[in-house]
Amino acid sequence: MIQAESDAQKRGEYLQRLMALPNQKWGEIIGQARHSADILKDPDVIRTVLNILQTNTRVATSLGTNFLSQISLIYLDMLNVYRMYSELVSSSIANGGPYASRTSLVKLLRSVKREILKLIETFLDKAENQPHIGKQFVPPMMDQVLGDYARNVPDARESEVLSLFATIINKYKVVMQDEVLLIFEAVFQCTLEMITKNFEDYPEHRLKFFSLLRAIATFCFRALIQKTDF
């Protein structure tokens, strides 16, 4: 119904009304987290955050570009939540070994991480190809998402990071040329080490890694031939 509204002002008002309750709850959680980040470790709070993100993803799927005002409202806080949950997952796996990744808390934390990546990917994929959108949303991700992927232990790396950047390159094509080297430095060597130990581990990473390589080779090939030490 919101997407069908031709008046941009009314469309924005309807979107505000639709997202009022999720945004109110999101604001309360983020506000409390600024006083004590420990609240974000509470399983009930994690489930609430996941539910809010899933709601945003569904709305983004329908609205595309018209979801810009909503995602802009939560974007930076969302990346901070991603970073914190990633650190918790990484430390849990590093200290508890491979079995730690199967605990209910770690699974819940990773569900939030993946939903954040899915929300960003959904919005960028559905939005119109406008360079200013890419310039607004990609740079903050470079350390929070890419850098985090590179720093993490293998079992804590989300394959959705690879598909997200494949979507970005497929969307913005040669505009992403300058970022390709940063993407390569963050994901190439560490992912290659993960998938070359045998032919069974990390199947999702294998598939999405080659999707990323295909996107880069198709739209940013010049950046590939400029980098010869991979």
Automatic annotation (TrEMBL):
Main location (coarse class): nucleus
Residues in Exportin-1 C-terminal domain copies: 70-228
Domain of life: Eukaryota
Keywords: Nucleus, Protein transport, Transport
Compartment(s) where it occurs, according to its Swiss-Prot or TrEMBL record: Nucleus
Presence of the UniProt keyword Protein transport in the record: yes
InterPro entries reported for this sequence: ARM-like, ARM-type_fold, XPO1/5, XPO1_C_dom
Membrane-crossing segments per the record: none
Keyword Protein transport tagged: yes
Listed PANTHER family: EXPORTIN 1/5, PROTEIN EXPORTIN 1B
Recorded family membership: Belongs to the exportin family.
Protein name: Protein EXPORTIN 1B-like
Gene behind the chain: LOC109129047
